[in-house]
Structure prediction request, 179 residues.
Amino acid sequence: MPLGRDYDRQDCAPARALEVLGERWTLLVLRDCFFGVRRFGDLRAHLDIPRAVLADRLATLVDAGVLERRPYAPGRDEYVLTADGLDLWPALFTLARWSDRLRVGPGGGGRRFRHADCPAGGADLTTGGLCPACGTLPPATSLETRSLDPDEDDGSRPERDDAVSRALRHPHRLVTPLP
Prediction:
């Protein structure tokens, strides 16, 4: 029997957030939306997620106002982060850095994030998501992501060959649609 999505006996902010974000795959769908993936087929191919599960997660995020569903071609839609969805960036970034520290170790995981719009020249974000050059917590739309530099990559992570993975091997501004 599947678990329910609601926490009707809990009246707290984390329980309400889990009602929207707590299902398996949801945070990965959001991560890809921040990376600029907007189309169902691209999300499905990059995440290797069952069609029905992805449709359910996208519907939940749209219903919660985290994503907006927009037509981009006849019979095809894309999913775009709303203002409420963009507000999730610091939490998603912090969760990723926490996991990098505990699961990967010093140096972190496979992506770097730089404050591209920094008035002080920009730098890679610190663990707390701050730009060390200007001291601000930049929004996702001000960030550029890139893979690890070749000298930082120990080769232990599998390299995927789908279109999204290939596009993300190059520096890319967050939230900007991938080609």
Observations:
- The domain at 13-85 is CATH 1.10.10.10 (Arc Repressor Mutant, subunit A).
- DSSP finds seven helices and five strands in the chain.
- The chain has a mean pLDDT of 87.
- The two ends are 40 Å apart (CA to CA).
